[in-house]
Design a protein that fits this description.
Length: 187
């Protein structure tokens, strides 16, 4: 007698539990949404720093040495952390001249090929390069040379690596969606 849970001898191995891929896609999308939400809120401290600088500079003739650095760091972090969320929402640049006239299956095929041959190789290279750069910056305690304040810059370099990792994960989610459409499932 065979075990009712085990597959019959010679039968193909069972596929992952139904919904496992869907749970993965939802988890990646949730992370992208959360980092997009965080990125959106980074506008608040950035705006406060700019407002303080403007007030100090023009009302009291006392410019700060830190506002410029704080502003570009917050804006850089905001821009980078929002990249995965932007991919999730389909907000990245695309040439729609032909794309909008294609069937969903053709669009998914073009997108899947683009992810595999262009997106992932490029992003994996940037992930590696930014990881090396961030690691070196952390090791030497790198500081900015742009202003006399000289703030630490290695956390911003680590955010670059984190942002690329999040973008690669969201690319995985998008590729799974494309493969579903190619196979005839809903996107």
């Amino acid at each position: 007698m065979t075990d009712p849970v085990s597959p019959a001898p010679g039968a193909p191995a069972p596929s992952p539990a139904p919904g496992a891929v869907e749970r993965l896609v939802r988890a990646i999308d949730a992370v992208s949404t959360a980092t997009g939400w965080l990125a959106g809120w980074l506008i608040v401290p950035m705006t406060l720093a700019v407002a303080y600088e403007v007030g100090a500079r023009y009302a009291f003739n006392a410019p700060t040495i830190w506002a410029y650095d704080v502003t570009y760091m917050f804006y850089g972090a905001q821009f980078m952390l929002a990249a995965a969320y932007t991919l999730l929402k389909g907000g990245h640049i695309r040439t729609d001249v032909f794309y909008e006239h294609w069937s969903p299956r053709t669009r998914a095929t073009v997108d899947a090929v683009s992810y595999v041959f262009f997106f992932f190789p490029g992003m994996l290279f940037v992930l590696y390069a930014s990881g090396v750069e961030a690691w070196q910056a952390w090791q030497i305690g790198e500081r900015s040379d742009w202003t006399p304040w000289r703030p630490i810059i290695y956390p911003l370099k680590a955010i670059i690596t984190l942002s690329v990792l999040l973008l690669v994960l969201q690319g995985v989610s998008e590729l799974i969606r494309c493969l579903r459409v190619i196979r005839g499932a809903a996107r």
